[in-house]
UniProtKB/TrEMBL annotation, chain A:
This is A-type ATP synthase subunit C. Keywords: ATP synthesis, Cell membrane, Hydrogen ion transport, Ion transport, Membrane, Transport. InterPro entries: ATPase_csu/dsu_sf (IPR036079), ATPase_V0-cplx_csu (IPR014272), ATPase_V0-cplx_csu/dsu (IPR002843), V-ATPase_V0D/AC39_subunit (IPR050873), V-type_ATPase_csu/dsu (IPR035067), V-type_ATPase_csu/dsu_dom_3 (IPR044911). It comes from Halobaculum litoreum. The keyword Cell membrane applies. Belongs to the V-ATPase V0D/AC39 subunit family. It is found in: Cell membrane. GO terms for cellular component: plasma membrane. It is a peripheral membrane protein.
């Protein structure tokens, strides 16, 4: 499926992506959605061209919140598959680099499924067929009976070598953690930004660095809040510019300093609201949502600086992910009987 | 050295006849303008196709924007009438 040859076609991809971007739900729609029951949400989604097909296809098999959940996953997968399909040349490489996180997710899901002896169907439902892996490889992975069989199948992919290295650890320890870490590390290794040069790509690189920085900050805060006696540097992701591993483990124990550090960085302006919230309300979820919103806004502004680059595509991918997360939060919240106001606090809206 | 100076001057000043006569130069200009228009349309055209694929109502707008660089060629044609 690799189409890295030829010239890239950012004009075509951007036109399509921007059109889809315009079709995403807006703040008003969310306000309506939080006041609906799951069945009404499904009906509302059916009216939108993005979900119509999925709702109709899955409507006979599922109902209620499950229907919404599976329709969201299916739509997400189909959308990103489409984007990869449109891209050619260099652009394909840049988009695939970002979408490989779904490959990482799928590999982990399959490994966990095999480990826990889960039904093939159940694992299949949890896959997000959005990454670079094609359907055939995923089907063969699902059919795999043992972990080493699955690792063998992945040998040709980017996860092959790290997984093969980790297999020994897995066999001696019997827990999945080494394999999962290998997948994560392989993914973040691929995100590394060293090879991106040029003006437009410098923006993309800045965006990837921001994502890694934010993830590091959230991880550190989570560890600090949970009070667990874990070393944050073990979870440190290379490639960011804001922290080093040693600094992060120091800052994790001192939230005030961490906040001050972020406020002084280049993200300070974009995150000032979120930072005040973190200092004031002491709510980590609010801060995480603010970080996500800031990342989304950041990607959007990059798309305006370089209209014909990979950044509008990445910004759409992020926006779509947020939308799927938001609708899922609404549906789950409704199922759990939360009030509309409480659900609205859980949403990430620009 | 001095003997060839007049010949050199006549070549430099193109005393006899220019290397490219006016009409040919104008024609070349039109050709180059068409080349530029074609290159501009490449990007606009692929963006227009992308937009139409998502929403068919955009067909007319897409078509109009795609042929806008064509005005370059029409303006370049003026050069032909000027030298004739």
């Amino acid at each position: 499926m690799s189409k890295s040859a030829g010239t890239s076609n950012p004009e075509y991809v951007n036109a399509r992506v921007r059109s889809r971007r315009a079709g995403l739900y807006e703040e008003d729609d969310y306000r309506k959605l939080v006041r609906m029951s799951p069945a009404e949400i499904a009906r509302f989604m059916e009216e939108s061209p993005a979900y119509e097909e999925e709702i109709n296809r899955l409507g006979s098999r599922f109902s209620g919140v499950d229907l919404i959940e599976y329709a969201l996953n299916a739509s997400l997968a189909e959308d990103f598959e489409d984007i990869l399909h449109w891209c050619e040349g260099e652009l394909y490489g840049h988009v695939a680099r970002y979408l490989r996180k779904f490959d990482a997710w799928n590999v982990k899901t399959v490994l966990r499924g095999i480990y826990a002896d889960t039904e093939r169907e159940a694992v299949d439902d949890d896959l997000i067929r959005a990454g670079e892996f094609d359907g055939k490889l995923l089907d063969r992975l699902l059919d795999a009976g043992a972990i080493d069989e699955a690792v063998e199948m992945l040998s040709g992919t980017v996860f092959g070598d790290p997984l093969a290295d980790a297999l020994e650890d897995y066999e001696s320890s019997g827990v999945l953690v080494p394999l999962e870490n290998a997948v994560d590390r392989a993914y973040y290794e691929l995100l590394r930004t060293d090879d991106l040069s040029g003006e437009a790509l410098a923006e993309y690189r800045e965006f990837l660095e921001a994502e890694i920085d934010f993830r590091n900050a959230i991880n550190a805060l989570r560890l600090a809040r949970s009070g667990a006696d874990l070393d944050p540097s073990e979870y440190f992701i290379e490639g960011g510019v804001l922290f080093t591993a040693a600094e992060l483990s120091q800052l994790a124990s001192n939230t005030d300093e961490l906040v001050a550090r972020i406020r002084e960085s280049r993200y300070g302006d974009a995150l000032s609201d979120a930072l005040s919230e973190l200092e004031g309300a002491e709510s980590l979820i609010g801060f995480e949502h603010a970080l996500e919103a800031a990342l989304l806004e950041y990607a959007d502004s990059l798309g305006l600086i370089h209209p014909l680059s990979v950044t509008p595509v990445v910004s759409y991918v992020l926006a779509k992910e947020r939308e799927v997360d938001n609708i899922r939060a609404i549906a789950r919240g409704k199922e759990a009987g939360l009030e509309p106001d409480e659900i609205e606090d859980e949403l990430v809206i620009l | 050295m001095l003997e060839i100076a007049p010949q050199l001057a006549s070549v430099v000043l193109q005393d006899a006849a220019p290397a490219i006569p006016p009409l040919s130069a104008a024609a070349l200009g039109v050709g180059l303008a068409a080349f530029g228009a074609g290159y501009a349309e490449r990007g606009i055209g692929s963006a227009a196709i992308g937009a139409v694929a998502e929403d068919e109502d955009l067909f007319v707008q897409g078509l109009i924007f795609t042929v806008l660089p064509e005005t370059l060629v029409i303006l370049a044609l003026v050069a032909i009438f000027l030298v004739q």
